[in-house]
Amino acid sequence: MSAEISSPRVLIIEDESTIARFIAAALQDEGFTTFIEGTMKGGLAAAFTRQPDILIVDLGLPDGDGLDLIGAVRAKTALPMIVLSARTDEKQKIQALDLGADDYLVKPFGMGELTARVRAQLRRQALVQPGNPSTVVDIGDVKVDLAARVVTRSGEEVHLTKLEYRLLQTLIESRGKVLTQRQLLSRVWGPAYVDRPHYLRIYMGRLRSKLEADPARPKWLLTEAGVGCRLAL
User: Fold this and answer.
1) Which of 31, 74, 118, 193 has the fewest Cβ atoms within 10 Å of its own Cβ atom?
2) Which part of the chain is the Response regulatory domain (predicted)?
């Protein structure tokens, strides 16, 4: 008898019941198991007792700020978290990501996009689990051998400078997750460079010119305007 494979468990922390039920129903149709909490207190408790695989978090909760919830969850677990919020302020997005959110989607949103982002975060989480032997990452027609530090495109080796490779490696390590400009600048160049966003623009442009089929319309190496960058895997 084969072992039963459980479906991914999604905890939705959203105080607008109509939106929460809509998200839950759509995700259930895609094979997910869902739980709904409408408060920060209930969401925090469920995050540690319901054993979810991923959290979808609204920032405007009736008994607290979703930013505080993100910080509290991230302090104890690496669970992926996607923020759903009507807040469009750039600083709020950056704060949520810096606190540990993995992605940020502004209301109103398309359910297809949310589902795709949930799947992307679950794929990333599976890839970074201890014991995963894979060291080769496929990005379209690009292969990155992390063990050998070799990058090829359509079978031909691509030369990357040390900084270009370090930026690509950082994006791969957080594949699917939006990294803020400050996070990337700190990890790739060092803490002294967090206020030099032009470095990131220049080097993302170089990576796209070497790895993207159409650098002007990148498919994999994406920039989230005013927030940061992510590798769309």
Assistant:
1) 31
2) 9-122
pLDDT digits (tens, 9 = 90+) for 144-158: 988 778 899 999 999
How big is the chain by its Cα radius of gyration, in Å?
Answer: 19
Q: What is the pLDDT of residue 4?
A: 42
231 and 211 Cβ atoms separated by less than 8 Å: no
CB 56 within 8 Å of CB 8: no
List, in sequence order, the alpha helices (H) in the chain. 17-29, 40-49, 66-74, 90-99, 111-127, 162-173, 181-188, 197-211
| Cα separation, 226 vs 205, whole angstroms | 16
d(CA 54, CA 123): 11
Asked whether residue 2 carries a pLDDT value surpassing 70, the answer given is: no
The reported pTM is 0.65
DSSP 6: P
Residue 135 CA neighbour count, 13 Å, CB half: 7
> What is the amino acid identity at position 77?
T
Copy the structure tokens of residue 231: 């590798």
HSE-up of residue 218 (Cα within 13 Å, Cβ side)? 21
Which CB contacts under 8 angstroms, 24+ apart, belong to 165-171? 167/200, 167/203, 167/204, 167/207, 168/144, 168/207, 168/211, 169/144, 171/221, 171/229, 171/230, 171/231
Q: Which amino acid is at 188?
A: V
Beta-carbon neighbour count of residue 229 at 10 Å?
Answer: 23
Token output for 67 = 């930013």
Q: Which amino acid is at 67?
A: L
Over residues 211-225, the mean pLDDT reads 93
